[in-house]
Amino acid sequence: MSEETKALNFIEHIIEEDLQNGLSKDKLRFRFPPEPNGYLHIGHTKAIGISFGLGETYNAPVNLRFDDTNPAKEEQEYVDAIKRDIEWLGYEWANEVYSSDYFQTLYDWAVQLIKDGNAYVDSQSSEAMSAQKGTPTQPGVDGPYRNRSVEENLDLFQKMKAGEYDEGSHILRAKIDMQHVNMHMRDPLMYRVLKKHHHRTGNDWCIYPMYDWTHGESDYIEQISHSLCSLEFKPHRELYDWFKEHVYDYAADKLPMQPKQREFARLNLSYTIMSKRKLLKLVEQKLVSGWDDPRMPTISGLRRRGYTPNSIRTFIEKVGVAKRENVIDVSLLEFCIREDLNYSAPRIMAVLDPIKVVITNYPNDKVEWLEAENNQEDDSAGCRKVPFSKELYIEKADFKEEANSKFFRLKVGSEVRLKNAYIIKAESVVKDANGNITEIHCTYTTDTERKVKGTLHWVSIQHAIKAEVREYDRLFMDEAPDSHQDTDFMEFINPNSLKIIDAFVEPSVLEAQVGDRFQFQRLGYFNVDNDSKAEHLVFNKIVGLRDSWEKQKPNPQQQNNKPQQAQHKRPAIEAIKQLGKKYTNVPEEKQLISKAEIIKLSEEVTYEDLQPLFNTAAKKAGTRIATMIALRVLLKNGQERNSDIEEFITKAKDDKNELLVAEANAI
RNA sequence: UGGCCUAUGGUGUAACUGGAAACACAUUGGUUUUUGGUACCAAAGAGUCUAGGUUCGAUCCCUAGUGGGCCAACCA
After folding, report:
1. Residue A445, SS3?
2. Which residues of A366-385 are buried (b: 16+ CB within 10 A; e: fewer)?
3. In this predicted model, what pLDDT tens digit does every residue of A401-435 receive, in sequence order?
4. Beta-strand pair A537-544/A465-472
5. Out of A46, A161, A186, A276, which one is annotated catalytic?
6. A222 flagged as catalytic
7. What's the alpha-carbon Rg for chain A, to the nearest Å?
8. Of the candidates A257, A243, A259, A261, which has an alpha carbon nearest to the alpha carbon of residue A110?
9. Known catalytic residue: A276?
10. Which positions of strand B lie within 7 Å of protein CB atoms?
11. In contact, A54 and A287? CB cutoff 8 Å
């Protein structure tokens, strides 16, 4: 049996290499270091999955460390929420620790650094200091307090600690190099005076350490072997190492391991935002019901929505780990939850948009309790009874007076199977004064062996339970709502992200408990919301079932119009895509040639070919430019403008790629 | 007028020390089906940003471009 070697990500490669170079496996140790200033979101689960996942594969301890160095923003509420979320995801931390646990050690080391001439107290305004700091392209200059004597520095720092100075009057800085190319090395701040109550240390401290100083040394104190964080901390690494190497001189005998920081690209999900600050804004402005609103990308939101821990963990696994910017399609997340729930969720029947069916040849008062399988994917799930009677509800969308043969559902004159029950045939309809159908009259047969094409779900009207169903749509209408320079993310809010439906469900769900998940047959997966009461059931729609019928409906004319293109030749649209992909990278003369080619190819392209490209990822400017050029040709040849086209053009005009803006304006 | 990171199908991630570009999602067909679900089978889709170089051979190494990201909070 040849064991298939699983592909490793770049972090695992680094660890394997370290192990081969002599690092003992029992020295491996990781950490997850959230700041308790907000709720964890789906983006954090990537970091959680990486560090805790590594802990699981190498059987190494993982610390949960709260990076609590800013008492102004941090609260116990967030600590509790974070712990709850990580536990819910199913991870176990070795130690629950706090950066604030190390305040004294950090202080002692800072004093050492001062004594060694590696840190000093600066007493300027923040404006003066930032002016001296320079810019990424210009070196900084030394400030006037840079060469204070060790004694003076020690004295000032001690008095800062003792609370003798006001906030903003003095700070402690590392003494490194104001001309350094890396701005983080230009005498970074280590301590500021902050007379705030801390959620754990109370009023013990008047000075609080900054991130770079605290984070790296916390790793060192905990003897973390690999400190993994997101890409934006890459420039901090040089400082991380500087601090670490200087402190090592003070503690090498007790703390031999020097941690290694490595960075990976954070997770981005299409149509959602990940910034804690922005999520907080949604909560504060009451655009959502709270951090756990089922539309929120927070872990608590996903939990309330009905996502399982397992589905989120497999999602993170599938997403992978690398160093390039990425936008994950939400469809992957949806796939993961469907896959999980398909095996575990019991099926029931519910009608969300009812229309009445009367079985004319069924006795008036008769009720039958028919057997229904709970989950055909799981034999152990067993069966239940569902009541059948003369008057039923089915979905409005499942009936048409007339329809073509592609419509497998109920239409007058033809038969359909009722799930778990009989085969019925629609005979006639009853309409109100406005011509709306109010009843469908059917006949039934008990011969259920017959083969019929469609199967519908239904509920018996007299037995149905009324329930509230909350159906969600994406919170934002834009693929990357917070990446626009002159449009605020709030402008993309989807006003219809919540739809409340009065639904009818089969009586077996009366016993359902908060959190229970079901498949409403043929509709999707739903769970019982926290707001649910015995007398008023509330369900959240987690995700719909895949629906290959719904998908082809919106553009019925598409199928007819599509010319049966011969497939021997490489289609023009493919060639255009190719040219577009490289468009922004090639030299200008070549761009002109490409453009001419695209224009020529566009003559053979249909709108249906082009339309899918409107959804091209925002970052792929080249493809969007090529699409724009082709679109211009189509419009010239008589293609009518529609909302998709308008949206594509408007979005392009707002882009930061000048070539794209120019092409958009040319239309 | 800087530095660092990065570039592989529509999306994401692989390709062990250079050796016929793989997997998953999405898409499109088909089979099965008392869910237009699931499962299964199949197809299409990239020749690895560009230009050079090293090499018998480059997604992988080197150089230079180009595109994208990050870097100037007493935030983390």
Report:
1. strand
2. eeeebebbbbeeeeebeebe
3. 999 889 999 999 999 999 999 999 999 999 999 99
4. parallel
5. A276
6. no
7. 32
8. A243
9. yes
10. 1-16, 24-29, 34-39, 45-47, 49-50, 65-76
11. no
pLDDT the model gives residue A612 = 64
Q: What is the pLDDT of residues A217-252, one digit of tens each?
A: 999 999 999 999 999 999 999 999 999 999 999 999
Catalytic site residue A167? no
Residue A653 corresponds to which tokens in the numbers above?
Answer: 């005009």
- Spatial distance between the Cα atoms of A332 and A339, rounded to a whole number of angstroms: 11
Q: What pairs with residue A198 in β-bridges?
A: A202
**DSSP labels, A619-657:** T-HHHHHHHHHHHHHHHHTTPPP-HHHHHHHHHHHT-S-
Contact call for residues A572 and A606 (beta carbons, < 8 A): no
- Position A626: which residue type? A
The protein residue nearest nucleotide B26, judged by CA to C1', is A331
Q: Give the pLDDT confidence score for residue A560 in this predicted structure.
A: 26
Say how far A53 CA is from B70 C1', in Å: 26
Tokens encoding A330: 């939400």
From the alpha carbon of A335, which nucleotide's C1' atom is closest?
B25
In angstroms, the CA of A7 and the C1' of B58 are apart by 21
> CA A129 – C1' B66 distance (Å)?
37
CA distances from A586 to A62, A237, A625, A629, A632 (A): 47, 34, 13, 17, 22
Helix, strand, coil share of chain A (percent; to 5): 40, 20, 40
Q: Which nucleotide is nearest to A182 (CA to C1')?
A: B3
One-letter amino acid identity for A454?
Answer: G
Encode burial over A244-280: b for 16+ CB neighbours within 10 A, e otherwise.
bebbeeeeeeebeebbbbbbbbbbbbbbbbbebeebe
Catalytic residue among A195, A266, A278, A356: A266
pLDDT at A5: 61
Choose, from A31, A35, A161, A295, the residue flagged as catalytic: A35
Torsion of CA A397, A399, A400, A404, to 10 degrees: 90
Q: How far is the CA of A407 from the C1' of B73 (A)?
A: 61
Question: Which residue is closest, via its CA, to the C1' of B2?
Answer: A137
Whole-number distance in Å between A234 CA and B34 C1': 57
Q: Which residue is nearest to nucleotide B14 (CA to C1')?
A: A7
Q: Are A307 and A277 in contact (CB under 8 A)?
A: no
Q: Is the pLDDT of residue A456 over 70?
A: yes
What pLDDT is recorded for position A567?
28
pLDDT at A559: 28
